[in-house]
Every structure is written in structure tokens, then in C-alpha cells.
TrEMBL record:
This is Ras GEF. It comes from the Eukaryota. It comes from Hanseniaspora valbyensis NRRL Y-1626. GO terms for cellular component: plasma membrane. Residues 1-48, 72-107 are annotated as: Disordered.
């Protein structure tokens, strides 16, 4: 048996003298196969060595030429960087899935390729989606070598801050998965199979997970000083021949390294620094004030009243203005609005605030335009114009401004004008009754939901955002973050709760893609 700490030269001598071509030819067919496997295994062992120490050591059998690979208890890495176990082909971003599909294994190897933490994941019996799990089990599913769960990945990327203590911890779990260790007691054939059919694919999955996260889901609010410690990964990924690694390096440097080095030092990084940096790199905020884009070839006055332009023109311009604000609302703002927790601070929800301010501004503007008139006939004309605008907003599927104006007409200053309402023509009373029923809050806005569901994602539409905020808050408050499961000591993360939140946010993001022309 080879003693721990034997040098690489000793292994070379053993491989050269113990099993030569002449000796192999004299062995029986079974012995020759065993000797060949041993030589292959020693090559694998050497390819994974750095310096005079290795993760593994070869233990030779006393009875024949066979042996097994076991963990080397005396191994001490020379650097904290993960070692690369094999050279990977340069495939495209989608090839990690095809690698999984082509990883057919024999029955003997099946136990080698199984997930290690599946017992700590609970699946929904109807949908098959992950409901709960431990941190390490969720990361294993995220970087699985068996299949890719795109919906799971989306939820994880968007809500990782509510599941992990920090961005650093989330990255660290993925890096630990990249440095996956084999089971003990593997022979050469099993180790070779494990590397090709599991380890290599897991490495690609980890790399692609980080790539997708940084490219499509990264926000400046995720910046943490400790993330600079992962800069060495760029060299690791280059050594492992990961696909499109130069592009990954550009994204990593642009979104993590450059902002951190430009704004902070290792000694000085507090919440105020983080807030200032996040604001610097945050998405733009559209100011909320009333103005018109289209003016029917008329000069737009500094102060306009409801009769400056037609009802259609006012409705169109309100819609364009509101949609400009709505399309800038980020997923992170939606989460920040319902979480409101400094521990997982996301940078506030500036565009949501602007959107709400815009709605309040419309409401106040309509109230003022009505009550400022001293003559009843002028008030009736203004009230009619407001109802005409609401009708045009309904035709444009702008339920946001429509709600603002209906709220203004239902407010105490306007609704108590009994003589004005009495003088309103019956057809206008019917129109107002119709739109009021649409925005009735009874049964959780059931009428509005049915009407909006009929048009959303088919044509441009602006929702009444208060309904989405209510759904997000009820989902957040009505579901616990952790779940206890019988037989598992550790409390499991309620992943199903995050998936429900993401369904709401995803619909908001989809609505932003249907813009008004």
C-alpha cells in the first residue's frame, strides 16, 4: 500500500515498472483489464495533482493489481482556488443541457450520478415543482447535472436574498458545488465515469448559473465588498475552458469588480456607501408631472384645463406618461415594497413611488378642475368631460388613470355636489355607473380582475397597480419563510412562497413588454 504523502515521481516509477506492456501480455484477460484500468486511473490521479499533494491517493490491493481511489487525509491545497479536474470542450451556453441528456450511465454507475441531497427537497405532488428545501439542496437542484429547471432558476435568481444571508453566501455555495468531491472508495473506472458524467457537467452548470445570474438578474444593490474574493474564478474558468469565458469576465468586471474598486475600500464599506453606490448605478426614475406629448398642433399652455384638448388626446397622453413610469418598475422594487426589511435592503422602490404619485396627482387635478367652477353648468360640463376621458381610458385599457379619475369623482369634495350630479344627463350617469362597477373593490376587485385578465398580454394595458401590491403583500404576509418537516431536523426554506411572489412579478414584467405606440 502506498503511504500518504508519496511524491509524484514515486507514482510515475510505480506506473512504469509495476505494470509494463510485457507483464500485461502475460496476465489473464481479467488481470489485463484490471491492470489497464489501474494505469488509466493513475493518469487521472496525476492530472488532478498540484505540486506534491493530491485530493486523492491510490490504495493498491494486496491480492492483485487492482486498487481504489480514496481521499488523501494529508492533502493541503497550495491556494484557495478550486482545482480543475479535466479539460472541457468549448460548447455553447445551451450545451450543458445536451451534456446531461447524453450522460447515459450503466446500472453499476447509477449510484455515483445521483443527487446527494434529494432527501432534503420536498416536491409538489401535482406540479412536480420544488416546494421546500435546505440551502445546499436548493443549490444542488440549481446546478443539477441531470436536468435544468428554468422556472426554479428564475425564482432562485430573483429571490436568493430572502433565502441566503448575503450575496457572498449565495456565490460561495455555488463555488462549493463547483468543487464537488467524489464518494470514497471509487476504483479507476468509477472515478473516470464520475468525472465525465457528473463532475464536468456540474462545473459547467455552476458556471452557466453564475453567467446567467450576472447577465440577466444582477442589480447594483447586490454589491458586497467580499465579492472581490471571487475574482480568482476568472482564471479558474479559463483553465477549465468554459464557454464564452471572455464575455463572462467582462460582465464580472463591469458589474462587480469595477464598481467596488471605484467606490469602496476593504476597510470602509458601510450602509451609506452601499446606498450611494446603488443610487449611482440604479435605473432611471421618470419624474411625475402632468404634461402632454401630443397637442393637436396647438401650443401646450403652462397650465392646461380639461378643455384644452379632446378627451381622446388627454387620455392618450396620460396613458403614454403613465406607461413610461410603469415600464421602469423593476422586479427588485416590487420585492422591496413588500419586504421593507433593512437586513435585505434592496434600494427602495423609487419608480413605484413615482407611479403612485402620478395617480394621486391625477386624482387631485380632477377634483380641483371640478370644484373650482362656481357655476353649476360649468361643473356639469367639467364632470361630463371627466367621464368622457374615463371612457377613453377604458378603451385604451388604462385601468390605472381610470381608477384615479373614478376615485376623484367618488371623493367627498365632488360626490357631495348634489345639484351638479342631479343636473348630469342620464347617459353620463349610466357611463359613470358602468366604470364605477368595473373598479368596485368588493370581492377583491373581482370585476376588474375578470376584465383585465381578458385583455392582458394580448394588447397594451396598464393595470391598477394597487391590486398587484395587495397580492404581493398578502402572499408575503400569509406564508412563512421557513417550514418544519417531520423527519428533518433543519427548518426548510419555503421555496413555494417565493415562486408565488415571482408569478406576480413575472406578470408585471410581461405587461411592460406590450408598449403603446
Amino acid at each position: 500500500m502506498k503511504e500518504n504523502g508519496d511524491s509524484e515521481d514515486e507514482i510515475d516509477d510505480y506506473s512504469a515498472t509495476s505494470v509494463t506492456d510485457e507483464q500485461t501480455s502475460d496476465l489473464s484477460s481479467q488481470e489485463a483489464k484490471t491492470a489497464s484500468e489501474k494505469n488509466d486511473g493513475l493518469k487521472l490521479l496525476k492530472s488532478n495533482k498540484k505540486g506534491n499533494s493530491s485530493f486523492f491517493e491510490f490504495q493498491k490491493s494486496k491480492e492483485d493489481f487492482s486498487g481504489s481511489i480514496v481521499l488523501n487525509p494529508s492533502y493541503t491545497p497550495s491556494t484557495p482556488e478550486p482545482s480543475s479536474s479535466a479539460i472541457l470542450p468549448n460548447f455553447s451556453k445551451t450545451d450543458s443541457t445536451s451534456l446531461r441528456n447524453n450522460s447515459e450511465s450503466t446500472d453499476d454507475d447509477e449510484w455515483l450520478l445521483q443527487n446527494e441531497y434529494d432527501d432534503f427537497l420536498i416536491y409538489d405532488e401535482k406540479t412536480g415543482q420544488v416546494k421546500t428545501g435546505t440551502k445546499i439542496a436548493l443549490i444542488e437542484h440549481l446546478t443539477s447535472h441531470i436536468s435544468t429547471d428554468t422556472w426554479f432558476n428564475e425564482v432562485m435568481f430573483q429571490h436568493f436574498k430572502t433565502m441566503f444571508d448575503s450575496t457572498f453566501e449565495f456565490f460561495n455555495f455555488i463555488v462549493m458545488r463547483y468543487n464537488l468531491m467524489p464518494q470514497e472508495g471509487l476504483n479507476y473506472r468509477q472515478y473516470d465515469s464520475w468525472v465525465k458524467k457528473k463532475l464536468n457537467i456540474v462545473k459547467v452548470s455552476c458556471y452557466m448559473v453564475l453567467f446567467e445570474f450576472l447577465e440577466n438578474y444582477w442589480y447594483p444593490q447586490y454589491l458586497e465588498n467580499d465579492l472581490l474574493r471571487f475574482s480568482y474564478l476568472l482564471e479558474v474558468f479559463k483553465d477549465d475552458k468554459m464557454p464564452d469565458v471572455d464575455r463572462f469576465g467582462e460582465i464580472f468586471n463591469k458589474k462587480i469588480v469595477e464598481p467596488l474598486r471605484a467606490n469602496i475600500s476593504d476597510r470602509n464599506f458601510n450602509n451609506k456607501d452601499k446606498e450611494a453606490m446603488s443610487k449611482k448605478y440604479a435605473t432611471k426614475v421618470i419624474p411625475s408631472h402632468l404634461y402632454l406629448w401630443k397637442t393637436e398642433d396647438k401650443l401646450c399652455p403652462i397650465y392646461f384645463n380639461l378643455f384644452s384638448f379632446s378627451a381622446r388626446t388627454i387620455a392618450e397622453n396620460l396613458t403614454i406618461k403613465e406607461f413610461d413610469i410603469f415600464r421602469n418598475i423593476s422586479s427588485l422594487e416590487c420585492l422591496d415594497r413588500v419586504l421593507n426589511n433593512k437586513h435585505i435592503w434592496q434600494g427602495g422602490s423609487p419608480n413605484i413611488k413615482v407611479f403612485i404619485n402620478m395617480s394621486n396627482m391625477i386624482t387631485n387635478f380632477i377634483i380641483y378642475e371640478i370644484v373650482k367652477e362656481k357655476q353649476i353648468n360649468k361643473r356639469v360640463e367639467t364632470l361630463e368631460r371627466c367621464i368622457d376621458i374615463v371612457e377613453e381610458l377604458l378603451n385604451l385599457n388604462n385601468f390605472s388613470a381610470m381608477t384615479s379619475i373614478v376615485s376623484a369623482l367618488s371623493s367627498s369634495p365632488v360626490f357631495r355636489l348634489k345639484k351638479t350630479w342631479a343636473a348630469l344627463p342620464e347617459n353620463y350617469k349610466g357611463k359613470f355607473s358602468k366604470v364605477s362597477k368595473v373598479m368596485d373593490s368588493n370581492k377583491n376587485f373581482n370585476t376588474y380582475r375578470e376584465l383585465f385578465n381578458a385583455v392582458k398580454l394580448k394588447t397594451p394595458a396598464l393595470p391598477f397597480f394597487g391590486v398587484y401590491l395587495s397580492d404581493l403583500i398578502f402572499t408575503q404576509m400569509g406564508n412563512s419563510d421557513l417550514v418544519k418537516v417531520a423527519g428533518i431536523n433543519e427548518a426548510l426554506i419555503n421555496f413555494n412562497k417565493r415562486a408565488k411572489l415571482q408569478l406576480i412579478i413575472k406578470e408585471i414584467k410581461q405587461l411592460q413588454q406590450f408598449s403603446y405606440n
